[in-house]
Structures are given as structure tokens and as C-alpha cells.
Amino acid sequence: MKRLLPLMVTALVLAAAPPLAQAAKNTLDIYFIDVEGGQATLVVTPSGESLLIDTGFPSDDALIAPAFGAKPGASSDGRDPKRILAAARDAGLKQIDYLLLTHYHADHAGGAVELSQLLPIRTFVDHGAPAAGADEGVPGTQRIYEGYAAIRAKGTHLLAKPGERLKLKGVEATFVSSDGVVLKKALAGAGPPNGACGAGAVPAQEKIENPHSVGVRLRYGAFRFLDLGDLSGDPLFALACPNGLIGPADVYLIAHHGGADAADPSMFEAIKPLVAVFNNGPRKGAQPRTLTQVKQTTGLDGWQLHRSIIPGSENAADERLANLDESTSAWIKISASEDGSFIVMNARNGYSKRYKR
Ligand SMILES: [Zn+2]
């Protein structure tokens, strides 16, 4: 009996140790990962489920059209998949439960194949095949899609359809646009006729694949977040005018990185965001017109992944810029509570600000 006692004590200590699984939390966390003007937005629900929206750039320069302005070799070491992995580790994730690709341009879908070599991806969500003529709009799009389709074949595939939802525990994820089509019916809480509508849509800068972007509205209690990918042109306008179809959103990841085709005041009026995030690079996205639109919108704070050096840019205050130049790759992290309050944090300097509607 004496000899058995130490073993029993060890067993009791092991039984009392906390489980290895991620501890329960009560916030919805969103990481806006710096992929130098692409998109990679990691959502972690209170129950620990993960939704990654886009994957940044690929390593292979041949897949990156000159239009994206990426420096040759800039992402040759799998830069963006590694940055996504760092955020996933920070969140305690071992896998990506859902990967949503908004569309197939290199700055959004390019990192998918390499990411799948770093982290298991379970379910793939997208708008279907690339829009007809996508390669004429942006060369390389079809090859990126084919690489992605090969990894998608190893998991579960869901087609995003406006009005339908992803099944997340405790968080509503509703698709608002996909494949050129938007919601037919307004979501609950959508507003009266929008007074900020002009005569029609601002033309999309890229008219083929961007307007096919999957858009998603997340809701956790009273908190709402809107991510529209690079939606632009007629579908973007249709979500805001003549009546807003989405209702309020506390945080808006500005469509198309804050390009000039997302500067129209109608969407800002329709969703009345408290925080607008620009997933821009020093010279990509965050066009002066859009930065000015955000600055002039009452009650709205802009947060940027990069200081824009495009001439004429009125940047947000330095404390709300995640990266002042290309020497850092800090993310912006949002932690939202069920009562609708949320904290935005700049990982470069630790500055944070709390918001509540
Ligand atoms: Zn883009």
C-alpha cells in the first residue's frame, strides 16, 4: 500500500489539471492580419470555432498580376500564410474550421494552398467558379482557383448564397452577397429609405471578379460586423440603396480595401458603423477619397493596417495605424462582447479603445 501511494497522488494531480482544450471565453475575436494590401481576417467565436476570411498573397510571383503592385519576391517565403499561422497560434487554434474565400484574386485566395500545408482546413466556403472572363480582368486568377479547388476537394465545400447562414455556435454568420447576387430581403433591423443614395453605383474598378465577392454579416448578441471582400459596383450599391438591406454594423471592413469605388457615402449611411477598418497597404487601397469619407462621417473612427503614402491621403491618427511602414506586420484585433461593446487593439503599440453604440 505504501508503494502505491505516490502513484495515486500523481493520478489525482493529473485529474485535477485543466483540460488541454482551449478555455471558454466570452468574446468574439477578430484579427485583421497584415497581408500588405490583401485580405486575411480571422474570426474566433466564443466557443473557439474559427472562420478565416481570405488568405493573402501566394509565394509564386507568377500568380500575382502587376496590377496588385506587390514587390517581386515579397511573399516568396510564404509570408502571408505564416502571418495567418501566427494569429491562429495567438488565438490557440489548431485548425481552421471554415475558410471563406470572398473571390479568387491573388491578394485574397493566393495563400490558400500554402496555408493548408501549415494548418488543417475543414470546410471551404466560396461563390463557386470564377466569374466568366476573370483571367482577362486579372491574369492568374484561374490558376489560383485551380490550386484552391484541389485542396478544397479534400474537405467539405459550401456554396455561399445570400440570405443563408453558416452554422456557428452562438454567432450568426449571414451571407449578404455572392456570385454577383445580393440579399433579396432586408435583414432584421435594416433601416428606412437611405438618404445618401446618388443616382447609381460608383463603377467598380475591376468589373469581373470583385463584384462576385462573398459578403458576410456576423452577429454576436448586439455586436455586428460586416465584411464584403472586394464587392464594388452595382452589387455594393444594391446592398445600400434605395434601402439599406443589412441594417447597422458596428464594425465595417471597408469593401475593396477602401478603394475609391468604396467611398460612396451610401453604405456608411446604411450601416452607420462606429469603426471602419482599412485592410490597405502603403500604396494599395485606402484611396484619399475613402479616407476623407471616413474622416467626415460623424461618430466613425478609421483604423488602418497601414499608413497610406498615396499623395493626398489624410491618414487616421498614428495610434490607430497598425503599421507606419513595411518594417512591421502588426494586426488589429477586435474583441466584442454580447452586449455590443467592443475593444479595438493595435498590436504594434498596444493602444486600444473601447466602443459601445
Ligand atoms: Zn483585393
What does this structure look like?
This protein has 357 residues and is an alpha/beta fold. It has a single domain, classed as Metallo-beta-lactamase, Chain A (4-Layer Sandwich). Helix content is 21%, strand content 21%. It has 9 helices and 17 strands. It has helices at residues 5-16, 79-90, 106-109, 112-118, 134-137, 141-152, 234-240, 265-271, 288-296; strands at residues 28-32, 41-44, 50-53, 96-100, 121-126, 156-159, 165-167, 172-178, 181-182, 215-220, 223-227, 251-253, 275-278, 301-304, 332-336, 342-346, 352-355. The protein has a 9-stranded mixed sheet, with helices on one face. Helix 7 (234-240) links the parallel strand 11 and strand 12 (251-253). The longest helix is centred in the first third of the chain and has 12 residues, at 5-16. The model is unreliable at 4-21 (pLDDT under 50). Zinc ion (ZN) binds next to helix 3. Residues 105, 107-108, 230, 257 line the site of zinc ion.
**What is the name of the CATH architecture?**
4-Layer Sandwich
**Helix/strand/pairing class, anyone?**
alpha/beta
Question: Which stretches are low in confidence, meaning pLDDT under 50 for 5 or more residues running?
Answer: 4-21
Round the mean pLDDT to the nearest integer and report it.
94
Figure out the total of helices. 9
The order of strands across the largest sheet is 6-5-4-3-2-1-15-16-17
Count the domains: 1
Quaternary form: single chain
Ligands in the model, by name, code or SMILES, are: zinc ion
Q: What is the element string, with H for helices and E for strands?
A: HEEEHEHHEHHEEEEEEHEHEHEEEE
* Euclidean distance between termini CA atoms: 64 Å
Radius of gyration: 21 Å
Name the overall outline: globular
